[in-house]
Amino acid sequence: MKRVKKPVFFIVALLILLFTYASVFGIKGKNGDNTVTYIKGVNDIRWGIDINGGVEATFTPVTTKKATNNQMDAAEATIKQRMIGENITDYEVYTDYNHSRIIVRFPWKNDEKNFDPQKSIEELAATAQVTFREGMEYTTQTTGSDGQPVYKTPKGTTASNIILQGNEIEKATPEMTQDKTTGKTTYVVGLQLSESGKAKFADATTKMVGQTISIWMDDTMISYPKVEEAITDGSCEINGGTNGFTAAEASALANKINAGALPFKLSITDSNTISPTLGKSSLSAMRTAGIIAFILVALFMILMFRLPGVVAVISLLGQVALSFAAVSGFFPWQNSFTLTLPGVAGIILSIGMGVDANIITATRIKEELWTGKTLDMAITRGDDNSFWAIFDGNITVIIVAIILMLVFGPKNILSYWFGASTTGSIYSFGYTLLIGIIGNFVFGVLTTRQMTRALSAFGCFRNRWLYGGPSDVKQMEGGAEA
C-alpha cells in the first residue's frame, strides 16, 4: 500500500470541517452599519415557489401596433434569459399571442421581507429596454442608494443618436481577464452582437475612437464606456475604465444588458403573490428530519464499520457542504440557485449514494481482513475492489442527471409535452443530484481513502478490529497472523 503521511488526515479533516461551517453558516463582516457577505450560506439559498411562494406578473407590449408572434417570442426569450442570468430556474413563462401578453411566475428572493410583487418585478428589470447611444448627455442627476450618481433622461446628440437597440445584442457575459503586463486580474463584460448590430457598431466605433458610447436602461444611464479602438468583428469588452469592475458589478451590468434585449417596452398590467404549496413549516420539518437522519446514518456507520465509519462521516459532511455551496451561490458574485422540493430530494439521494460508496469500500476492507490479510494489504485490496463498483453506479446516475438538466433545463426542450411548470422542479432535481454525485467522487472516494490510509500509519490505529476485522490480540493468542 502506498503510504500516506500522518498529518494528511488532520489537514483534510480540518479543511472539510471548515468548508462545512462556511457553506452552512456563511461568512459575513461589517462595513460600518452595513453587513458584507464574503461567503454565502444556507440562509442565502433562493427557495422555489413550492416552498417559499413567489410572484405572478402579466406583461403587455407598449406599442401602437399589435405585436407579431415573432416579437412576442423574442420578448419571452429575453425574459427567460433574464431569469437564467439571475439563476432563477424555477420559473414559468406563458405567452398569450391572441391577447398579446406574457404571464411570468417566479419565486421570491431569499432575503425578501416586504413581499412586494411590484418591487420584485422591478428588480428583475424584465420590462426595460437597453440602448447604446452616442455621447453621455443627460438631463438630470440624482444619487442612488449606494451613494453613487445616477444620470437620467438623455438629451441632445445622446437622445437623437441611437447606435444599437437591445435586441441587436445576442448576449452579454461577465468575464475574468488577466493583464499581460501586470498580471492583475480584472473583470469585464463581453458583448456578442447580431449581424445587424455588428455592422452598425463597426461604423460607430470607427468614427468614435476616444469618445464615449453610453448604455441606457430606458431613461437611466447604466454605463458609459470609452471607445478604445474600432470594433468590426461584432465582439467586444466593456472594461470598467480606470477603476475597473468588481465581479459583482460585471455580473450586474451583463444581466441588465441581457434583460434589455426586448423588441419593445413591456408594461406591467397585473401582478400578485403566489402562495407556496408546501410552506416554510414544511421546510423546517425537512431540516429537522435531515439532521436526525444524518445523525442516525453517522451512528450506523460508526457502529458497523468503526474507524472507517468515522472517516466516512467526515467525508459525508464534505459532500453535504458541497451540495449547499452549489445552491447557495457560496461566493457573493454568484447568484443563489433556485432550490425546489425535488432539488432537496436530489441532495438526499446523492447523500444516500455517498453512504453507499463508503459502505462498499469499508465492507471490502472488512472482508479482506477476515480472510487473514494484513491491514495495509486489506486497505489496498478493499480500495481497488470497490472502486469500479462505485464508479459504475455513480457514472450511470451522472448520465441520468445530465439528461434531466438538458431536457428540463432553461432551454425547455420538452416543455411542449410536459408543461413549463415541471421544468424548474425537475431541473433542480437533476442539478443537485449531479453536484452530489460529483461530491461523492471527491469526498466518498478520494478524501475517504486518503484519510483512512493516513490513520493506518498511526501505531494506535493499526489494530485490525478498528477496521471491522478480527482483533490482533485474539490473533496473537490463537496463532500467527496469516
How many strands, what sense, and barrel or not for the largest sheet? 4 strands, antiparallel
CA-to-CA gap between the ends?
17 Å
Order of neighbouring strands in the sheet with most strands: 5-6-4-16
User: Which whole number gives the mean pLDDT?
Assistant: 82
**Helix fraction by DSSP (H/I, runs of at least 4):** 40-55%
Structural class: alpha+beta
Q: What global shape is seen?
A: elongated
Question: What is the highest CATH level, the class of the largest domain?
Answer: Mainly Alpha
Q: Name the beta content range.
A: 15-25%
CATH superfamily of the largest domain: Multidrug efflux transporter AcrB transmembrane domain
Unreliable runs: 476-482
Radius of gyration: 28 Å
Reported by name, the CATH topology of the largest domain is Multidrug efflux transporter AcrB transmembrane fold
Number of domains: 3
Instruction: Identify the CATH architecture of the largest domain.
Output: Up-down Bundle
Number of strands: 17
Question: In words, what does this structure look like?
Answer:
By secondary structure, the protein is α+β, with helices and mostly antiparallel strands. The protein folds into 3 domains: 7-30 and 279-478, Up-down Bundle (Multidrug efflux transporter AcrB transmembrane fold); 54-126 and 262-274, 2-Layer Sandwich (Alpha-Beta Plaits); 129-259, Gyrase A, domain 2. It contains 14 helices and 17 strands. It has helices at 7-25, 49-52, 69-85, 117-124, 156-160, 195-207, 247-259, 280-305, 307-328, 341-370, 375-408, 415-418, 423-455, 472-478, and strands spanning 27-31, 34-39, 46-47, 54-61, 92-96, 101-107, 130-134, 138-143, 149-154, 162-165, 169-178, 185-193, 213-217, 220-223, 235-238, 266-274, 338-339. The strands form 6 sheets. A 4-stranded antiparallel beta sheet has the order 5-6-4-16. Helix 10 packs antiparallel against helix 11. The two termini are 17 Å apart. The model is unreliable at 476-482 (pLDDT under 50).
